[in-house]
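[recover] target loaded
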């Protein structure tokens, strides 16, 4: 009955969208409609419809190992396998509201509040969290090309967990002009355009864009103040952390601050733990 209900909701939603005059639709409303449709498609098992809303390559960060994927489609396949392995059924995502919808040209950044309900080996479970999305527009159609899930969960303990927290502080504690791109990974989601950076030069490009934007807005003395992680999960040589953070700065000489959280994926190699991917979800 739930599946039939959700399908009915989606058909009603699609009918409304089809009747809307194209000229009246804004990019912001289209971006939100894409997120809503992706959730409805996922809840109703419409794999073809969901796939049509996904662009590749992309960034996906989630709380189960290996915690990061180079496309949303690859994450979806991994999630299906994870659910089967762990006896997870009756999964449903509920969109609780949009915190931010930023659109610039053919790129967009969204932070939403979402609930995730499911059964684990028959026992009802529920999680709440934020999701940071990035989208791109091609041929007049918005598609999701990045996302990160941020929730409170277990905080693993031990030497690896301590080393992970230390690596995160090494990357983000320095002032803006001292940040080292080599410590910041190769896949990034942030709140300013173009919102998503991937590849060997991702961190350098992100940092240059941040500095240019800060100068244009009169922002100086930018510092990140990381709180204790609310989620740390480790699987072998891969890890995931969610870290609440306050960003302080001076805007034209006046104090300013912003609250949010980082979702960070890390890997362990011969030199220790290092960041591979991260996303910022602003409050």
């Amino acid at each position: 009955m739930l599946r039939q209900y959700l399908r009915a909701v989606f058909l009603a939603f699609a009918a409304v969208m089809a009747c809307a005059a194209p000229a009246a639709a804004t990019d912001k409303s289209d971006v939100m409609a894409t997120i809503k449709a992706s959730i409805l498609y996922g809840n109703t098992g419409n794999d073809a419809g969901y796939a049509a809303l996904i662009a590749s390559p992309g960034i996906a960060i989630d709380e189960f190992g290996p915690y990061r994927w180079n496309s949303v489609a690859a994450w979806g396949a991994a999630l299906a396998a994870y659910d089967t392995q762990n006896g997870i059924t009756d999964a449903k995502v509920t969109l609780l509201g949009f915190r931010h919808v930023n659109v610039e040209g053919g790129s967009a950044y969204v932070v939403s509040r979402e609930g995730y309900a499911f059964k684990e080996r028959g026992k009802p479970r529920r999680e709440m969290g934020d999701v940071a999305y990035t989208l791109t527009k091609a041929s007049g159609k918005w598609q999701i090309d990045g996302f990160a899930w941020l929730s409170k969960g277990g905080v693993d303990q031990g030497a690896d967990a301590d080393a992970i927290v230390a690596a995160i502080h090494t990357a983000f504690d320095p002032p803006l002009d001292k940040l080292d791109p080599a410590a910041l990974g190769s896949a990034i989601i942030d709140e300013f355009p173009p919102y998503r950076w991937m590849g060997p030069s991702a961190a350098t490009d992100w940092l240059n864009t941040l500095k240019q934007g800060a100068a244009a807005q009169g922002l100086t003395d930018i510092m990140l103040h990381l709180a204790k992680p609310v989620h740390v999960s480790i699987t072998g040589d891969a890890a995931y952390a969610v870290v609440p953070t306050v960003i302080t700065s001076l805007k034209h000489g006046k104090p300013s601050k912003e609250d949010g959280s980082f979702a960070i994926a890390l890997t362990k190699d011969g030199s220790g733990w290092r960041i591979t991917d991260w996303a910022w979800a602003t409050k």
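[recover] notes: The chain has two domains: 2-151, 159-282.
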